[in-house]
Design a protein that fits this description.
- By secondary structure, the chain is mainly beta.
- It has one domain.
- It has one helix and 14 strands; from the N terminus they run ββββββββαββββββ.
- Strand 3 and strand 4 form a beta hairpin.
- The longest helix has 4 residues.
- The radius of gyration is 16 Å and the shape is globular.
Length: 178
């Protein structure tokens, strides 16, 4: 059974794309989260068309793999693959290879389906790093990533209804449509 959430993406008040996040239960112990986002901006000096794809797998509450790829104007801009080898996580990416041992039990993709302010650290699949929840209350929380960006998540009735990604060039707003 799959659950799906879709968000419209906008910048400077103009809708430029959509993001869909899916949670699939493969069996009693395996959860698979995917995200696909596509957008196109043709505004003043910015002419970009991009797609982003994520996939993360959890078995018995522990991440066993994740992958991320971002394409801009038809070219791979950023990518990574992470696998658990039974002892540690092996990261391959366009930034190089590395390892880490801290076990991700909660991630950015998982939070769309279970947004909770109980966690202070969340695994960020795109950066292959743990990010910090910098502020939270009953209306939402803010996540600071290692790349310097911040995302504010706004909750209503316990569900993410909107987000703002505070990036270097512009703030991207996302609004739940499904």
């Amino acid at each position: 059974m799959a659950e799906e959430i879709t968000f419209d993406m906008s910048v400077w008040g103009f809708k430029f794309g959509q993001m869909t996040v899916t949670k699939t239960l493969e069996n009693d112990s395996t959860e698979v989260y995917t995200m696909y986002a596509a957008g196109k901006v043709n505004f003043l000096w910015m002419k970009k068309e991009g797609t982003t794809k994520y996939e993360v797998r959890f078995v018995n509450g522990q991440m066993i793999s994740s992958s991320y790829i971002r394409m801009v104007n038809g070219e791979t801009d950023y990518w990574n693959e992470v696998v658990f080898d039974g002892e540690k996580y092996l990261v391959e990416s366009n930034k190089g290879n590395r390892e880490f041992t801290e076990v991700p039990t909660y991630s950015v993709l998982a939070l769309y389906f279970n947004p909770t302010t109980e966690h202070t650290r969340i695994y960020c699949e795109a950066e292959t790093e743990f990010s910090t929840v910098t502020s939270s209350d009953e209306d939402g929380f803010e996540l600071s990533c290692t790349d310097g960006s911040r995302t504010s998540y706004h909750l209503e009735d316990g569900l993410i209804q909107s987000m703002e990604i505070h990036a270097s060039l512009a703030n991207i707003k996302m609004k739940r449509v499904q």
